[in-house]
Amino acid sequence: MRIIISGGGTGGHIYPALAIAEQLRESASQARIFFVGSKDGLENSILANYDYEFLSIEVSGFSRKLSRETVHSVRKALTGLKQAWRIIKKIKPAIVIGTGGYVCGPVVLAAWLSGVKTCIQEQNAVPGVTNRILSNFANKIFLGNPAAGKYFQRKKGVSVTGNPIRADIMAADSYSARKKLGLSQGKTTILVSGGSRGAMSINNAMLNVHERLCRCPDVQVLHITGESGYESVVDELSQSAREAKNIKIIPYMDEMPLALAAADLAVFRAGALGMSELAARGIPSILVPYPYATDNHQECNARFFERENAAILVRDRELTGDSLYSLINILLKDKTRLSGMADAVKRLGRPDAAKKIADDILTMIAAG
Known about the structure:
By secondary structure, this protein is of the alpha/beta class. The chain has 16 helices and 13 strands. A 7-stranded parallel β-sheet has the order 3-2-1-4-5-6-7, with helices on both faces.
């Protein structure tokens, strides 16, 4: 049984693909899984750490304005479609799965043109343009957020499964995680992250927060700045905050499952995958959506959590050190509210999403 999975550009498309692949391998040991992506994309470097077969095609994003670059992108898309068609003909997959990003467009379309079954997985409350188009060629559509359902109302085979997360996200326990990360066991732990690239607005606001929390012995902070923001954060910290034992600032975290397992509260961007991991672990959060996300989808993601009392939404332009500290302080003092948010976000969690998706995919394959 051969299966092709395609998705790329960001970790939010790649890690759900890996979670699905991981579950397919567990449920069907005979499955041979191929990933198709761009050789210049993030998917290439991430997948280098896994033992999946990786094939590349040429592709680039489209500008929303007609220009010379648009013509170039169209040419690349046609080249990518031809390359994807050749891959489909060579591998002869039983099914092709797209998880978003420009690269999966030619792959899913080539599969459909070749008569191969296809499905897509959409992570966000507002679907990306690639998945909106591909929904016309998909036999099944898996949704990470029920709010996205209105965009696919006329489509058949729509299933709200939640976003697939890697098994290691749920495997870590709090005690072991804190021990490995050098964190204290008895303190309320705040995890701060602006995503793999960091978030300048969050980093800047945290400078003020660190200054105050460094004097709170019952609280500790794990702040992941992103590679590009690390030096500026450390340079601008006061000496007291820099030397505080309860403030841990690092540029990047390879073992995010440990960081999540250690956390009691998170300050995050509102990417769909990160939010799904918070929900699976039952971590309440303060969400600061990336303001330039396509179709403002991060704010839509965050509003869904806010409506369920699972998170507090703060717009990027309204974020300050004072406002962030105030919210953190309110939650630290109101344990009942913090616990209620934890219960609410836990109810939104779908730790079994990858299994549900894999089971449906295998059922589709068995149906012939």
